[in-house]
Amino acid sequence: LPWQGLKANTKKQKYERIMDRKMSTSTEQLCKGYATEFRSYFEYCRSLRFEDRPDYAYLKRLFKELFYRKGFQYDNMFDWTVLNLQQERSRMPPDRQIGPSGGEQR
């Protein structure tokens, strides 16, 4: 991200520089090389006023359509689900494991 690695004399100055960089970075520059949905997302967010309530259904639909267009299937498997399963398996004794990495496989 363009605001990473900025240097300043104080924390306050650093955060001000980060804010300035975030405010001056265009959505086109920020999202270059990514799906257009990301730019749409940031433009939508930047258009919101403080008192506006975001249209979460629109934002969810934006990325859901991208998800399916890229050929993914919704299978309820998430990175953290797979990681949790792997961690649980590693804590089990080998004779209690089921499946490719463990005992009871038929």
TrEMBL record:
This is Non-specific serine/threonine protein kinase. InterPro entries: CK1_Ser-Thr_kinase (IPR050235), Kinase-like_dom_sf (IPR011009). It comes from Thalassionema nitzschioides. The lineage of its organism: Eukaryota, Sar, Stramenopiles, Ochrophyta, Bacillariophyta.
